[in-house]
Design goal:
The chain has about 475 residues and is an alpha/beta fold. It is built from 17 helices and 20 strands.
C-alpha cells in the first residue's frame, strides 16, 4: 500500500475483538462500533476502574469481558490490541492459529485515516530507544513555525485514532511510535521516518535484541521521501539498508560532527543541512545555532537534528527550523534545570530510566554529583560507569537495585565517593539531595539520572522527578 493510499474496510457486521481497555482500547472499540463492527473487548483486569470503563462501553452495545484476556472469542475475524500486550499471549497464539489478523492501535489508525472523507494527512514518524518524545515535540514546533496544521501524536499520549478521526484537519502529523506499536503495524507507510538510536530495552517483550531492532526498523518500510538515521549509531543505518522503501526515498544521516553529503550536522556551533540543498557536495544550509536548542546538551542537539531532517524532508524552510527550535520547551523531568544553589546546578533527568539515556545525560556535564538507582530491569552498569568515571565528583545511590551500580563503581571508579542510602521510601529523595549538596563544589551539577525505573519507590518517573525538585527547593530555603 503506497504512502498516500487510504485503505477501505467494510466494517459492517465484522466481528472484532479489542484486547485491552485504556488509552488505546476504548477509542478503538468506540470507533469500530460506530462503523458497524460487532465489537467484543477482552481485558485481563477486573478492578473498579475497569468495571466503570466496561459499563460505559456496554451502554453503547459493546460486549466487554473482564478478567479474561486469554481466550479468543468465537467468530473473531480481527484482533485489535493495546500496544503493551506481549506477542506470546494465548489470545494472540489462538488468533494466529485461526488465521486471524492482529492489528495494533497504530495500524487501526493508519487504516482509518481519511475515513471521515477528508484528505489523509501524511505522517512523519519517530522511533528509537531514547529521545522520541522530545524529537516529536520539536518536530511539531518546527512544523507549526512553518504555518502547518499539525499535532504531536502516538506514543506521546495523544491518541492517533483521535487525531485521524477527530474534527481537526491536519496538513501533517508528527508521530511518536514505540517498538510495541510498530510490532503490530504491518501496513504503516510514513512519508519520512527516523530511528534515533538503538540500545537494549524491552527485551522481555521482544525476546531478543534482534527482534527489538527489527520492530524499530519497521518504521522505515515504504517511506517515500527520507529515512533518517543516526550516523553515530551504525545499527540505525543498517535498518535503513534493510528497509523496502519507495523508489527515490533517500537515506539522510544526522551527526554531531561536520556533516557529509546527505547529512545534517554541526559546524562551529551552527546546525547545518547538506541533504536538502541544490548541491550537497559543495553547499551547506544554515538552519539554527546550537544555542537555539533548549537545553543544548549533546543528545538534545541530536534530537534537534533528527527533527530538522524530517521537517526538511517535508519541505520546511530553514527559518522555520530555527524558529521552531527557539520556541520549543522540553517536557518536565528531561534534563530540566531546577535551581542554582551556591554555584551548583541541580538538574532533573528522572526520565533517564535506562543506561542509554543516562549515558547521554552524564555526557552533558563536566563535573557531576550523580543521584542514581531504582529498578534495574535486568540492566548492567559497567559500561555506563566506565564512560562517566572522569566526570563524577560523587554518587548518591538509593532504590532497590542500587547495589548493582555500587558494584560497578567499585570496579571502575573506586576513587569516587559513594553515599549508599539503605532506604526505598519516598522520603529518601530529600536525604539524597542533602548528601549530594555536601559532595558538590562550585561549578558542579547535581544530576538526577537514575538509569533505573522508578516503581520501587515512586508511582512513575514524574513523581520521582517532582520529589527531587521539591527536595532541591527545600534545600535552597535552608541555604538562603
Amino acid at each position: 500500500m503506497g504512502s498516500q493510499e487510504v485503505s477501505t474496510v467494510d466494517w459492517q457486521g465484522k466481528h472484532v475483538t479489542v484486547a485491552g481497555l485504556g488509552v488505546s482500547g476504548i477509542p478503538a472499540a468506540r470507533a469500530l462500533h460506530e462503523r458497524g463492527a460487532i465489537v467484543t473487548v477482552v481485558n485481563d483486569g477486573d478492578d473498579e476502574r475497569a468495571r466503570a470503563q466496561a459499563a460505559e462501553l456496554e451502554a453503547l452495545g459493546i460486549t466487554v469481558r473482564l478478567g479474561d484476556g486469554a481466550t479468543l472469542p468465537p467468530s473473531t475475524e480481527l484482533v485489535v490490541t493495546a500496544p503493551g500486550w506481549q506477542p506470546d499471549k494465548p489470545l494472540f497464539l489462538a488468533a494466529a492459529e485461526a488465521g486471524v489478523d492482529i492489528w495494533g492501535d497504530v495500524e487501526l489508525a493508519w487504516r482509518l485515516r481519511g475515513d471521515n472523507g477528508r484528505k489523509a494527512a501524511p505522517w512523519l514518524a519517530v522511533t528509537g530507544t531514547n529521545g522520541k518524545t522530545t524529537t516529536v515535540r520539536m518536530l511539531a514546533s518546527i512544523l507549526e513555525a512553518a504555518g502547518l496544521r499539525t499535532a504531536a501524536v502516538g506514543n506521546i499520549g495523544v491518541s492517533l485514532l483521535d487525531a485521524v478521526l477527530g474534527e481537526q484537519e491536519y496538513d501533517v502529523l508528527a508521530v511518536e511510535l514505540s517498538s510495541y506499536q510498530l510490532h503490530w503495524a504491518p501496513s504503516l507507510r510514513a512519508h519520512s521516518a527516523a530511528v534515533l538510536n538503538l540500545a537494549p530495552d524491552h527485551l522481555d517483550w521482544h525476546g531478543s535484541m534482534e527482534a527489538y531492532a527489527a520492530d524499530k526498523g519497521r518504521v522505515y518500510e515504504g517511506n517515500t521521501v527520507a529515512c533518517v538515521y543516526n550516523a553515530a549509531d551504525p545499527a540505525t543505518e543498517e535498518l535503513v539498508r534493510e528497509a523496502d522503501v519507495e523508489e527515490g526515498c533517500r537515506a539522510i544521516g544526522f551527526t554531531l560532527g561536520t556533516p557529509g553529503p546527505s547529512q545534517l550536522g554541526v559546524v562551529d556551533g551552527i546546525l547545518v543541512d547538506r541533504a536538502f540543498v541544490a548541491n550537497r557536495q559543495k553547499q551547506a544550509q544554515e538552519l539554527a545555532e546550537v544555542s537555539d536548542v533548549n537545553p543544548p546538551a549533546p543528545h538534545n542537539i541530536a534530537n534537534a537534528l533528527a527533527a530538522a531532517a524530517l521537517a526538511r524532508a517535508f519541505g520546511v524552510e530553514p527559518a522555520a527550523v530555527r524558529d521552531g527550535l527557539r520556541t520549543f520547551r522540553p517536557d518536565a523531568h528531561r534534563i530540566e534545570h531546577i535551581a542554582d544553589i551556591g554555584e551548583v546546578a541541580y538538574v532533573d533527568d528522572s526520565k533517564a530510566t535506562n543506561t542509554h539515556a543516562t549515558e547521554a545525560s552524564l555526557a552533558a556535564y563536566d563535573s557531576i554529583v550523580w543521584i542514581a538507582g531504582g529498578l534495574a530491569k535486568g540492566a548492567t552498569f559497567d559500561e555506563l560507569v566506565t564512560g562517566a568515571a572522569k566526570r563524577l565528583r560523587g554518587v548518591v545511590l538509593m532504590g532497590a537495585d542500587r547495589a548493582l551500580i555500587r558494584e560497578a563503581l567499585t570496579r571502575h571508579a573506586p576513587e569516587v565517593p559513594v553515599v549508599d542510602l539503605d532506604r526505598t521510601d519516598t522520603g529518601a529523595m530529600s536525604e539524597a539531595v542533602e548528601h549530594a549538596a555536601r559532595l558538590a563544589r562550585p561549578g558542579d551539577t547535581v544530576l538526577l539520572a537514575p538509569a533505573c525505573a522508578s516503581m520501587d519507590m515512586f508511582t512513575n518517573y514524574n513523581k520521582r522527578g517532582e520529589a527531587f525538585a521539591d527536595a532541591v527547593r527545600a534545600h535552597a530555603e535552608k541555604s538562603a
